[in-house]
Protein 1
Amino acid sequence: MTPPGRARGHSADDVARAALRILDDDGLADLTMRRLATRLDVQPSALYWHFPNKQTLLAELSDRIVGQAPSLLRGGGVAAEARALRDALLAYRDGAEVVSSTLALGLGASTALDRLTAAVVAEGFSPEVANRTATTLLHFVLGHVWHEQQRLQYDSVGVVAPGAAHLPDADFAFGVDLIHRGLQAMASAPTATTP
C-alpha cells in the first residue's frame, strides 16, 4: 500500500519547503503538522512518512536555515562567519528560535558550530579552544538574533515598550569583536593557558 503523502507526489523536500513558507509567513507558533498537512492537501499522518515527528522536521528546517549562510564567506574570518550566520537566521521569521531549539535538543547538523570553529582554528588556536570560542559565539549570535526577531515582531504589531532599544548592526559587530578580542588577548597573555 502506498502511503497517502507519496501518492500525492510530495517529497521530503516539498514538505520542508512548505514548512519554511509557513514559518516565514506565520511564525513558529503557527507551524503545526496539521497546518502543514492542510497546506500540502494531505492527511497529517502522511507527513510522518518523511519526518517521524515535529522535532525532526524542525531539525531539517534548522539545517536549511543555517545552510543559507553564504559559503563564499568560508575562510573570511570569525566576524564574517558570525555575520553570515546572523544573516541566515534573519532571513526566516523565528529563524533563531528554530535553530536554537534544535541545537538544545541535540538534533540537526553542526554546520554553524563547525564553520565558526574552523574560523577560529584558522587563526592558530587549538581545536579545543576553537570549539569553546565557537560555542560562545554561536550562543551570542542566536541570542542576539532571537532578540532582534522578537523586536521586529513586536514592532510589526505596534507594540513599543518605553525605552526599548533596537539592536543595530553596530551592536552585533561590537559583541562579536568583543568575543574575538577576548580570545586574542587570552592568546597573547604571558601566562595564557587553556581554560
Note: DSSP finds ten helices and no strands in the chain.
Protein 2
Amino acid sequence: MAQFTRIEVAQIMKESGMVPLFFNSDAEVAKKVLKACYDGGARLMEFTNRGDFALEVFTELTKYAIKELPGMIMGVGSVTDAGAASAYMLNGANFVVTPVLREDIAIVCNRRKVLWSPGCGSLTEIAKAEEMGAEIVKLFPGSTYGPDFVKGVLAPQPWTSIMPTGGVSPTKENLKGWFDAGVTCVGMGSQLMAKHADGSFDYVKIEQQTRDALEIIKTLRR
C-alpha cells in the first residue's frame, strides 16, 4: 500500500522539479543507485518496469527505502496495463507512470488514490488524461516534442502540469529550456545515471549530478 497520497506525491514532484528513473535487474546495484540519488537530494524515484522479475526488485528496493531512506517516494514507470499497476501498488508503489494513456490504469490508480502520470503526445490526449484525474501528465518522448510543444499546450491550458521524459539532461542549458517553457518537473534517466567505461554505475557521479541538477532547477525557479 502507498505511503504517500497522490496529492502529496504531486506536491513533492512540483517542489523538487525532478524525478530520477532507472532499471537494473540486480537489487543490490539498484539499492546503491537509489542511495546515490537520495544522497544527492532526490526524494522521488521511478523504477522502470522493463525486465523480467522487475516487480521482485522493486519490492526489495521499496522495503529498503522505507527502512533506510526516510522520505524517499518510490514509484514505478513503463507500466502498460492495469494488472501491472495493481501489482506494483500492492508492493508499495506511490505513483505509476505510463508510456501511454490507458483508462484501465487510471481506474485502478484512482481507486487507491495513487498518483498516475500517463504518457501523452497531443493536446487531446492531455485533456483526456486530466478528465480522468491525472494531476501531472508525462510528455513522452520529450526529445520528439521539445519545450516549444510545452509552450503550445500551456497557452490554452495554463492549468496543465507537464513532466517531460526523454531528451532531458542535467545541464543548465537543457533544464532552462524546459523550465522556461513551463514544465512542472522533469523525468531524467540515462543522462543522470552515469556509468564507468565498463558499463557499471558511477555512484559518486550520480550523486553529484543529482545534486547539481536539483540546484540548477531551484535557481531557475527563483
Note: The mean pLDDT is 96.
Protein 3
Amino acid sequence: MWLRRAEAFSDSRSGVVVLAGTAFADSSVLPVLPDLLLIPMLLLKPDRTFSLTAICVVASSTGALVGYGIGHVAWASLGETLVKMYGQADNFQRYQRLVEDWGLWIIIAKSFTPIPFKFIAIAAGVASMNLLTFTVATVIGRTLHFVILALLVASWGQQFLQLVAKYERWLLGLGILGAISLGIAYATR
C-alpha cells in the first residue's frame, strides 16, 4: 500500500514541486537534503531519472544563488561590523583569499559531503566570491552530486527494493522502534 502511495506521489505534479522546493531550500535557507526525496522517486520511477535529476540540479543551483545573495547582503549590512568588533578582520581576509584562490574547488568538493549546500553558498556570498566562478562551480558540483546519486540508484536500486519487499514488516518494526527511541531520548534529555 505504501508503495502505491509513494508511486502516485512520484508521478504527481506536487511530488515534483516538493522535490524542487526541497532542493532549492537545501541550497538557500533550510538544512533539508533533497536526496531523501530523490532516492525513493528514482527507485519508483527509473524512467524519469533524467528529468528528476535535472530538476534537482536546476532548483539546487538556483537556491545556491539565493544563498550566496543572503551571505552577500548580510555581510554588507552587518557582518563586517561584527568581524571588526570581534577583532577577526585579518582572519576573515585570509578566508576571503582562500575562497577566491580555491573557491571553485571548495564548492565542487562540498557537493560530495552530506552537509547542506546552503552553508557553503552563504559563506561564498559572505566572502564575496566571484559570482560567475561560484555559479559555474555550483552547477558542476550539484550536477556531479545528483548524477552520481542517480547512477548509484540505477545500479543498486532494484536490489534494494527487493530487500525491502522481502523484509518489509521487520523494517517497519525497526523504523517504529527507532522513532520511539529517538522520541524518548529527545524527551528525556
Note: The chain has a mean pLDDT of 80.
Protein 4
Amino acid sequence: MKELSIFVDESGDFGEYDPHSPFYIISMVMHDQAVDITEDLAKLETQMQYLGLPHHCVHAGPIIRSEHEYKEYTVENKRKILRNMMTFTRKVDVKVKSIHIEKKNIDDSVEAVGKLSKLLAAFIRANMDFFIGYDCVKIYYDNGQVEVSRILSSVFNVLLDNVEFRRVLPSEYRLFQVADLICTIKLAELKLEKHILSKSEKFFFEDVRTLKKNYLKPISQKEM
C-alpha cells in the first residue's frame, strides 16, 4: 500500500493584526513512506550528538530569537543547530509547501480560515494526480490551533477519500521539526520581501545573501 505522510505546522495566530506578526503561515512536509530516510536521520542524530544535544527537539523560531531553552546558547551553537536541520532538510527526499495570508488584509478569523482553506484546496487540486497516487494520506499535526485542525480536516476530507489524521508530539518526528523550520524560514522570506526583518533575524542570518543562499534557496528547491 502506497502511503504519504504529511507533517503540518503553523506560524502566527488568528488574532487581530499585529505589525510584529503580520502573516499566518501553514507549512507541509510530504514524505512518501516507500522512501527510506533512515540514513539521513542517523546522520542528523550524529551531528546533534556532536553538539551535545542527542534527540533534541529543534524549535527554529526560538533559536533565532534566543528564547526559551536557547537563551544561554552562543549564537554560533544556535547557527550550528539550524545548519544541521537545513542540511537534513536539503538531503532528505521530501517535498514541501507553504501557504500564507497577510493578516492586515483580513477582517477576522472566519475570513482567515476561509482564505487559507481556499489556498490549501487550490494546492491539492493543482496536484491531484500526485495525491490520488497514494492509497493512504496521513496528516500529522500537533493540534496546536483548532482553526488549523478544522482547515486540514475540512479540505483534505472533501477533496480526498483516503485521509487519516494523527496527533503528533514535535519531539517524536524530525519531519515535524522540519515543518516548523519551513514555517520559520518562510516567515523570514516574507518579511525580507517587505523589508521588515527583526533585529534578531538580521543578526542571526548575518546578511541577505546568507539568508537567500543557505536557507531560502535550498527550501525553494523542495517546493511543489
Note: The chain has a mean pLDDT of 94.
